[in-house]
Amino acid sequence: MKNNEKRQGVISGVSLIVMAILAGFSFGYAHSSLVVESPELTLKNLFENKPLFLAEISGWSLIFVADLVVAISLYFFFRNTSKQVSLITALIRIAYTLLLGVAIVQLFKIIPVLNSENAVSDALMIAKTSEHLQLFEKIWSVGLIVFGLHLIGLGYLSVKSASVHAFIGYLLYFGGFSYTLLHSARQLNLSDAGVLNSVEGVLALPMALAEMLLAIWLIYNGVRKSSLKNKSGV
């Protein structure tokens, strides 16, 4: 493995882990704590916990940047495996990232509402906030359909690559198909939301594990090979 390839792999791996931590905070903690079923209570939560909401938006913004870094660095890592497939896979992730960016804009649009003293008791403000949050989740869900296609591309590249364990590739295939089919079903209303949420709860771990194992492998592979090279005096 060439030095540049190793470096790009480490950059991708570190960026993926940073993104996982940021997503755990922004969506797993902040968003889930602030956004509830009641639009009135949601706006009240946002109004009373504005610093947490701003921190959530900051987290999403950093995820947006990290996603672009991952798309580019993974292209350079896998281009010797298949330049064409690697480029298509990178462009698909960039497309997903742009959709995520459009979704994040919906969160920014809520900030002016929170600067209004009477927002909590204003029916129009409550409705606007609810609409922006629903759009955020809908656009992000559409983006995750595209993200699933990216994972399928990564799965193909990982299976074909001599630098990544094939098991990780097959896990990426599984994660990719899961994201795409689950969120396609959600957008097309093919099943009850409760059923889809239950299925997502079951699949969440293997779906997340796919990219995390890839990240750990990329970092380990890059650092291990660098260490061996240093020890050999080359």
TrEMBL record:
The entry's keywords: Membrane, Transmembrane, Transmembrane helix
Record's protein name: DUF4386 domain-containing protein
Record has Cell cycle as a keyword: no
Transmembrane spans: 12-32, 52-78, 90-111, 139-157, 164-182, 202-220
UniProt organism field: Lentimicrobium saccharophilum
Membrane is among the record's keywords: yes
InterPro entries: DUF4386
